[in-house]
């Protein structure tokens, strides 16, 4: 059983394959956190200590004259504002009269088989090998009811957390802050690992000690953002890729978030993750309920690589859905870097002809096919086909592409509106805009009010009608600006808007993927500005970055790999000099980097030299051979490309019969020293053949002593070596 309750001790034990999560209801009815780590079978309540901390750490009234009892010191499951805990708390409730208070006590709990799901929000799913624990807490003064939800997914060592707040009081309340998870640690020196970045350079890894005070990362851009990814790790200061304790937390949400790390006066650590409290004040009417988005938690004592593998497995098996979940994705050619806005039907057909000849399987028509759009200043919102520009209808184009043996996909950006559009002329009130203020523009576009169900309904009809024109096999859903001017004409209270906006986006996604179940959906927000587990519930892959430079991509994909599996990471070979950096890299290196992801091309195939065409044909054949291994294998990082002059990673099949090792030299020098790499994840007793030169090595030797990478001449050489067990 994954969830165990000991009624005598009032002790909850949540068990996965390798971990235990423990909490208890204490004698005053408070829910205290006891432990999260490797398996243990007994209560760790003995770890709690009680000292008189003086008048500056409050004592709840239920504790009588016991001055040794303070929630300012004790580890809690769900700390709230109002109990004398002065650390950052998970829940702040404001009442109509401006009073901030809440005091939650255990009422009851329920254990059920299968994992809960959240209405209107993405969440991990698992019928088998999972259980749900719901703990109901209430505030006796206001009648507020808070349900803590725990999903225990045993096979990948994942525990999920979410919170439901129900307003049973006699007046409106306002949720001013809500975190979905709190983890309190009694002691320890921990590092916070976070992933910062910017447009075209996302998810750079940063590791820093958690010091006294509060450290946080988050987003208030309306998307999870390029700037900080909603995935963080807490590690013991000594943890490495292959050894040591670490905790990961992934927020299953694509909007604003906040992750906080705090070292307190008694050297204890608190970690919180949930919705951002900025631009948020959720008004909850009498009888209404609110769901905080889910957080996926995982723990391992086997280092960062194992932690990533837990998340990879969970995301592939319990988050991604749909027809393509377990399918190798078609190799695509995207029109964006091939021709930007400058195309017509004829140009696209030529691109498709060339693509078919090379073995590419799908043509994606990116931005510019709708309204009057020939640059990025107009037409968003006008989702009708520009037949004049194409020289044909979408149905005709799609037929032509299919007749060449290719699948066909299109790009959309449903959440946006250009001021220069028919939609904006007829419905200016549908844009998020502060009345009386000239709007903040981003890429010359405004954001539609997805908190308004009328807008969502309109978009459903509008996008559906396009998707019915011809056989559309793929859709890239983009979102190309940060949100500002948060004001909806459809509500009188603005504090709910950004959360309701996300619900609107999710509801449109859900309706469209259900209405068009055969379509492969890819998420995008200026590349990886909304690369999160929430989006992956709807789109089983996301365009990783607008930066297609192979060398930058080694670093971007390295950071991405800490949480996200290769199968979800959209990655393309583009032209040189690269359009973002001007760098020239070899076609083999571009292929090696792009191939360890959802693979494709994004360049003008018609302009390729003959030798490049030959190389691309080989690459695609090679990819078909390797794709099942890349999509389903176990991933290992073999270097840190932010610290070493080398990017190296490998994927091992689950039976450990095959291993694909990829290496990119990020710098070359005269008279280069030899680069040695230690492999991982092999069967130590098996012999492996290097399929390139036929040489045979013992698994244990490759892992313990390593493997020399031959030096190659030229900038940024790469190596892709497939080992097969003999
Ligand atoms: C964003 C995407 C690109 C491309 C353009 C089109 O920047 O990330 O891949 O689709 O929009 O405008």
Summarize the structure in words.
- With 726 residues, this protein is α+β, with helices and mostly antiparallel strands.
- The strands form seven sheets. It has a nine-stranded antiparallel sheet.
- Helix 8 links the parallel strand 25 and strand 26 (520-523).
- Helix 10 (550-560) runs parallel beside helix 11 (587-595) and helix 11 (587-595) runs parallel beside helix 12.
What is the CATH T-level topology of the domain at 3-319?
Beta-galactosidase, Chain A, domain 5
Q: Which secondary-structure class do the elements indicate?
A: alpha+beta
Question: Helix amount, in percent?
Answer: 10-25%
Bound molecules: alpha-D-galactopyranose
CATH superfamily of the domain at 3-319: alpha-galactosidase from lactobacil brevis
Major β-sheet profile: 9 strands, antiparallel
- Mean of the pLDDT scores? 97
The number of E-state strands comes to: 37
Radius of gyration: 27 Å
Note poorly predicted spans. Answer: none
User: Biggest sheet: strands side by side, in what order?
Assistant: 6-7-8-9-19-15-14-11-12
3D shape: globular
Distance between the termini: 40 Å
Strand content: 25-35%
CATH architecture of the domain at 3-319: Distorted Sandwich
Supply the CATH class of the domain at 3-319. Mainly Beta
What is the multimeric organization of the chains shown? single chain
Helices, by number, come to 13
């Amino acid at each position: 059983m994954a969830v165990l309750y000991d009624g005598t001790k009032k002790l909850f034990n949540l068990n996965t394959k390798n971990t235990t999560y423990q909490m208890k209801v204490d004698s005053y009815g408070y829910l205290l956190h006891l432990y999260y780590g490797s398996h243990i079978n007994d209560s760790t309540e003995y770890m709690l200590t009680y000292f008189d901390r003086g008048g500056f750490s409050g004592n709840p009234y239920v504790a009588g004259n016991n001055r040794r009892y303070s929630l300012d010191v004790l580890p809690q499951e769900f700390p709230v504002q109002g109990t004398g805990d002065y650390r950052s708390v998970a829940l702040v409730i404001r009442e109509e009269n401006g009073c901030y208070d809440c005091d939650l006590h255990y009422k009851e709990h329920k254990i059920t088989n299968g994992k809960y799901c959240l209405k209107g929000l993405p969440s991990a799913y698992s019928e088998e090998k999972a259980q749900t624990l719901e703990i109901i807490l209430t505030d006796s003064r206001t009648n507020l009811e808070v349900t803590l939800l725990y999903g225990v997914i045993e096979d990948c060592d994942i525990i999920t957390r979410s919170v439901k707040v129900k307003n049973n009081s006699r007046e409106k309340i306002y949720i001013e802050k809500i975190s979905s998870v709190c983890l309190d640690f009694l002691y320890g020196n921990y590092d916070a690992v976070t992933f910062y970045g910017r447009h075209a350079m996302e998810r750079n890894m940063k590791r820093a000690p958690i010091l006294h005070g509060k450290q946080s990362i988050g987003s208030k851009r309306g998307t999870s953002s390029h700037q900080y990814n909603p995935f963080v790790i807490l590690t013991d200061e000594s943890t490495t890729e292959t050894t040591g304790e670490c905790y990961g937390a992934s927020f299953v949400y694509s909007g604003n978030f906040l992750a906080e790390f705090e070292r307190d006066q008694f050297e204890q650590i608190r970690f919180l993750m949930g919705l951002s409290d900025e631009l948020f004040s959720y008004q909850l009417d009498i009888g209404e309920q609110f769901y905080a988005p889910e957080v996926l938690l995982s723990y391992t004592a086997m280092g960062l690589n194992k932690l990533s593998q837990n998340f990879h497995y969970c995301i592939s098996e319990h988050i991604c859905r749909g027809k393509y979940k377990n399918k190798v994705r078609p190799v695509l050619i995207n029109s964006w870097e091939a021709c930007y806005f400058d195309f017509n039907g004829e140009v696209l057909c030529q691109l498709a002809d060339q693509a078919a000849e090379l073995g590419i399987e799908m043509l994606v028509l990116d931005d510019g096919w709708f309204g009057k759009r020939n640059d990025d200043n107009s037409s968003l919102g006008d989702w009708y086909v520009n037949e004049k520009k194409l020289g044909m209808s979408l149905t005709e184009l799609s037929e032509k592409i299919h007749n060449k043996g290719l699948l066909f996909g299109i790009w959309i950006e449903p959440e946006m509106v250009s001021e220069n559009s028919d939609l904006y002329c007829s419905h200016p009130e549908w844009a998020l805009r502060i009345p009386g203020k000239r709007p903040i523009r981003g890429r010359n576009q405004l954001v539609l009010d997805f908190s308004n169900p009328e807008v969502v309904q309109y978009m459903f009809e509008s996008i559906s009608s396009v998707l019915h024109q011809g056989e559309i096999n793929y859709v890239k859903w983009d979102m190309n600006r940060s949100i500002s001017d948060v004001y909806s004409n459809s509500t009188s209270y603005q504090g709910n808007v950004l959360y309701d906006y996300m619900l609107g986006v999710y509801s449109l996604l859900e309706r469209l993927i259900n209405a068009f179940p055969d379509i492969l959906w890819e998420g995008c927000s200026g590349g990886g500005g909304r690369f999160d587990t929430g989006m992956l519930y709807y789109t089983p892959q996301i365009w990783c970055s607008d930066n297609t430079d192979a060398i930058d991509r080694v670093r971007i994909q390295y950071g991405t790999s800490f949480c996200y599996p290769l199968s979800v990471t959209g990655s393309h070979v583009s032209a040189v000099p690269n359009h973002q950096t001007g760098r020239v890299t070899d076609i083999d290196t571009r292929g090696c980097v792009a191939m360890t992801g959802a693979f494709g091309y994004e360049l003008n195939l018609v302009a390729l030299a003959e030798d490049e065409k030959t190389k691309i044909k080989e690459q695609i054949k090679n990819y078909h051979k390797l794709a099942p291994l890349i999509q389903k294998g176990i991933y290992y990082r073999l270097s840190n490309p932010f610290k070493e002059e080398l990017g190296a990673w490998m994927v091992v099949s689950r039976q450990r019969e095959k291993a694909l090792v990829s290496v990119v030299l990020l710098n070359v020098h005269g008279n280069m020293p030899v680069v040695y790499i230690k492999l991982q994840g092999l069967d130590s007793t098996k012999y492996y053949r290097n399929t390139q030169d036929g040489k045979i090595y013992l698994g244990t030797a490759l892992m313990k002593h390593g493997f020399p990478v031959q030096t190659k001449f030229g900038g940024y050489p790469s190596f892709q070596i497939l080992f097969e067990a003999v």
